[in-house]
Design goal:
Helix content is 29%, strand content 22%. With 271 residues, the protein is of the alpha/beta class. A 6-stranded mixed β-sheet has the order 8-2-1-11-10-9. Strands 5-6-4-12-13 form a 5-stranded mixed β-sheet. Strands 3-7 form a two-stranded antiparallel sheet. It binds flavin-adenine dinucleotide (FAD). The site of flavin-adenine dinucleotide has 30 residues, from helix 1.
Length: 271
């Protein structure tokens, strides 16, 4: 990994947090906009936050019109990401199947499917038999506590190796000149008399910047408070049960809102 922990006195842009968002922002600033005098400052290690701990699912079958294009564009980006970054992010378009277990689920998923299609997002309804054919381990017999009454399938959804994504963005950004400074918590944000930002205080001293991006996930409000700004966000913990890497059984991601659970097998573990 190139240029980790190099540090200048000041940068054009500082990004707080080396997760997928911070590293992605740094990479696109450098690659698409030619802004390379950038530092990503991370209190721990690359992708050590949510980015390296999530269940790796990539999908865009969300309901609301306002977010449809954003999510769908994001899914499209994955297609060429390994080639673009010259790093295998292990994107596997294995499909995400959401199971319906009652009439409410059926109606709600069909509403999602119609809304998605109106926005050009792929999503289709499968009968129980089609669900079984797509995902053979499913038991579709009717005498079950949660019978499978059908399912919504987004075929181009899938999974990727989450920490590879962080490493891939980091290496590609670093190649373009971005400095990635790990083990260096931001402890303060300095603003001048006119209110404009001047840089950040860190565990290794002050680093100047006229522009600061904050992508510190649940800590974003804390960083914004350091700048004297009240951020209208609340953070909630989200946890996943992770097993040892069980041999491949499920060919896709299977979700069930009623059971409030999903199963996903990755090369790292099963979620
Ligand atoms: C259990 C779980 C399962 C999930 N499953 C999925 C899923 O299947 N699909 C999906 O799309 N999303 C999923 N998510 C959500 C997804 O992981 C997050 O939205 C995404 O990773 C956030 O990326 P980020 O870069 O914003 O934050 P993070 O990856 O959390 O990065 C923020 C970084 O900021 C750093 N930081 C914090 N404070 C400071 C400071 N003071 N100074 C310097 N650095 C600081 C942290 O150390 C951290 O590395 C899941 C999340 C969880 C927790």
């Amino acid at each position: 990994m190139a240029r980790c922990n190099a540090q200048k006195k000041s940068y054009d842009v500082i990004i707080v947090g080396a997760g997928g968002h911070g590293l992605g922002a740094a990479y696109y600033l450098a690659s698409k906009y030619g802004i390379t005098n950038v530092a990503v400052i991370e209190k721990g290690w690359l992708g050590g936050g949510n980015t390296g701990r999530n269940t790796t699912i990539i999908r865009s079958n969300y309901l609301y019109d306002e977010s449809a294009r954003l999510y769908d564009h994001a899914v499209d980006l994955w297609d060429g990401l390994s080639q673009e970054l010259n790093y295998n992010v292990m994107f596997s378009k294995r499909g995400v199947l959401m199971l319906a277990h009652n009439v409410h689920d059926v109606q709600s998923f069909q509403r999602h499917i119609h809304a998605n299609r109106l926005n050009g997002v792929d999503n289709k309804w499968l009968t129980p038999e089609q669900c079984k054919s797509f995902c053979p381990p499913l038991d579709i017999s009717s005498a079950k506590r949660y019978p499978v009454m059908g399912g919504a399938l987004q075929q181009r959804a899938g999974v990727a190796r989450h920490d590879s994504v962080a490493w891939g963005y980091a290496r590609a950004a670093a190649k373009l000149g971005v400095d990635i400074i790990q083990n260096c918590a931001v402890t303060g944000v300095k603003r001048g008399p006119d209110g404009a930002v001047e840089g950040v205080e860190t565990e290794r001293g002050f680093i100047g910047a006229k522009k600061i991006g904050v992508s510190a996930a649940g800590n974003s409000t804390v960083i914004m408070n350091m700048a004297g700004l009240d951020f209208p966000l609340e953070s909630y913990p989200l946890q996943a049960l992770v097993s040892e890497p069980v041999k491949p059984i499920f060919p896709c991601v299977v979700m069930s809102n009623s059971v409030h659970a999903y199963i996903s097998q990755s090369d790292k573990a099963s979620w």
